[in-house]
Amino acid sequence: MTTRPAEDYRVDQGSRAFRGLYARNARAVISRGLLATRSSNWLIMVSGFFEPVLYLVSMGVGLGALVGAVVGPGGEEISYAAYIAPALLAVSAMNGAVYDSTWNVFFKMNFAKLYQGMLSTSLGPLDVAIGETFLALLRGALYATGFTAVMGLMGLITTPWALLMVPAAVLIAFGFASFGMGITSFLKTFQQMEWINFVMLPMFLFSATFYPLSVYPQPIQWFIQALPLWHGVELLRQLSVGIFSPATLIHVSYFLVLIAFGMLLTTLRLRKLFLR
């Protein structure tokens, strides 16, 4: 009679633990979400695209006529509309991702009890996290593509490098979506969910969206530079004019770390809540 080494048992236990977290079937979560969107949520999904477009028209064209040219990322003067358009693209990607990864997740988790049903099947928490994040990411990608098309129609795209704003906006959406779902898992009431809007509105207004960071006192600048939207705004502004620097890599790395942390947080929270 032969015995298996202790290392083999540890490998088997680790494999079983991983299979409990991930069944490699996130597509089932994605398919269900797409069907639900097509049948009931498509109008809400489309309406979220217009808010940043209206800001671009009113602020970029209306206020831009009064402001005139401003200094862009490369030190060259650009129109005010071209200055705020990449920032509003980052906001558009954020809005699409955050809506799907917070309010939709909140309803599914606390009222529809959807995740309890999913995790009672062979699906694991990582399948759910990947599926829901992908749906939020898809929404952010659609918003980013549509907004970039609007920028093109308004003559605000002046370099081929600006096309990189679409995948960069998807990266931004990924960061917000992965983290948003994990945060939502801690919230239990509609009053608590209002804190999401309370955080997003100041971040939208003060992340150098409409004016440069230099207008703030130094301590406030440090705080703003820690916000994810500021990194998204700066990344897209650089891409919009084809300017690359070491800061570009810092902005991308910020979101890669945010994605990794967000996916880990979401997976652990789903496992704790529904696989006791």
How would you sum up this structure, described in words?
- By secondary structure, this protein is mostly helical.
- The protein has one domain (23-274).
- The protein has helices at residues 6-21, 26-47, 50-67, 80-110, 114-119, 125-153, 165-184, 190-206, 218-224, 228-241, 246-274; strands at 69-71, 77-79.
- The protein has a two-stranded antiparallel ribbon with strand order 1-2.
- Strand 1 and strand 2 (77-79) form a beta hairpin.
- The longest helix is centred in the middle third of the chain and has 31 residues, at 80-110.
- How much is the radius of gyration in Å? 21 Å
Helix/strand/pairing category: mainly alpha
Oligomeric form: single chain
Spatial strand order of the main sheet: 1-2
| Gap from first CA to last CA | 37 Å
Q: What is the domain total for the residues?
A: 1
Strand tally: 2
Tell me the fraction of residues in β-strands, as a range: under 5%
Helix content: over 70%
Order of helices and strands: HHHEEHHHHHHHH
Total count of helical runs of at least 4 residues:
11
For the sheet with most strands, the description reads: 2 strands, antiparallel
Backbone shape: elongated
Low-confidence stretches: 8-18
Summarize model confidence as the mean pLDDT. 82
